[in-house]
Write a structure and sequence with these properties.
The protein is an alpha/beta fold. Helices cover about 35% and strands about 20% of the residues. The strands form two sheets. An eight-stranded mixed sheet has the order 2-1-3-4-8-7-10-9, sandwiched between helices. It has a two-stranded antiparallel sheet with strand order 5-6. Helix 8 links the parallel strand 9 and strand 10. Helix 4 packs across helix 5. It is globular. The mean pLDDT is about 95. The chain binds thiamine diphosphate and iron/sulfur cluster. Iron/sulfur cluster binds next to loops.
Length: about 260
């Protein structure tokens, strides 16, 4: 399979220079290298600029309502375990309105992969503060500085029980592709927080701003420094933070049903 095999005829509607293009390219390359059959691929998204990615990749994809991609994807994966099921969407979709579902997925450990296009704004609705925007920041479309505290997607994922937690940068396509592949291959709930500049509304966290701050972890941090790395803000670490072999939802269900059967006999 080649990256081209995952292209569709849909016109890509993102602004020129948007970080979403990097995610699109990396994801197509990752799928091609893993040779995932488009017929067995389902990408589920909510609503937002980033959620339009489902139109640009060949698969049996679903564009669902705002914040509800994870429950829809969970149903699909549990009904058809042989499918590769991915969730893609903005930080608003997944960590704002969809935050409860994000937590539930980590607790359940269903074999789903969540790609957060993290631009810290609500791009589609014209630049309001997203859940990952730092407090006190005023971007070009906002009347006042953000009064909310930011959500840290990595800490939330760790607290929720995700089996794989990583962070990547949208314009580093090669590195992002490798991280997406690793997430897909790791069994269990996985999240990749993708720092994705919004060139239209986020005039602070630009490509240049990130490039001055990001650096790559050489390997996942050990337990004693994991939280410190996840909390770092002056310099921003990228790479795989956490990987754990844990029983997945379907394994636990099989065990439970088996035990119940034993009780009956
Ligand atoms: C229930 C509901 N509430 C609000 C909206 C309006 N809305 C559409 S997209 C969106 C947020 C988009 O931001 P994000 O998920 O971060 O994606 P981005 O556009 O930045 O990629 C909102 C609030 C909606 N469509 N449905
Ligand atoms: S508004 Fe921002 S996130 Fe949406 S397409 Fe334009 S640059 Fe990308």
């Amino acid at each position: 399979m080649k990256e081209y095999d995952y292209k569709t005829d849909a016109w890509v509607q993102w602004c020129p220079g948007c970080g979403n293009y990097g995610v699109l390219s990396a994801l197509r390359k990752a799928l091609a290298e893993l040779k995932i059959d488009p017929k067995k691929l389902v990408i589920v998204s909510g609503i937002g600029c980033s959620s339009r990615i489902v139109y640009y990749i060949r698969g049996s994809n679903v564009h669902t309502v705002h914040g509800r991609a994870i429950p829809v994807a969970s149903g699909i994966k549990l009904a058809n375990p042989g499918l590769t099921v991915l969730v893609a969407g903005g930080d608003g979709d997944i960590l704002g309105i969809g935050a409860g579902h994000f937590v539930a997925l980590g607790r359940r450990n269903i074999d789903l992969k969540v790609l957060i296009h993290d631009n810290a704004v609500y791009g589609l609705t014209k630049g309001q503060a997203g859940p990952t925007l730092p407090s006190g920041v005023k971007l070009r479309a906002m009347n006042y500085a953000n009064i909310h505290e930011a959500v840290n997607p990595l800490l939330l994922a760790l607290a929720s029980g995700y089996a794989f937690i990583a962070r990547a940068f949208a314009y580093h396509v090669k590195e992002l592709k490798e991280i997406i592949k690793e997430a897909i291959l790791h069994r269990g709930s996985a999240v990749v927080d993708i720092l994705q500049p919004c060139v239209t509304y986020n005039d602070l966290m630009t490509r240049e701003w990130f490039e001055k701050r990001i650096y790559y972890l050489e390997s996942p941090p050990n337990e004693s420094e994991l939280l410190q790395r996840m909390k770092e803000v002056d310099r921003i670490p990228l790479g795989v933070f956490y990987k754990a072999e844990k029983e997945t939802f379907d394994q636990k269900m099989a065990l439970m049903v088996g035990k119940n059967k034993d009780l009956k006999t």
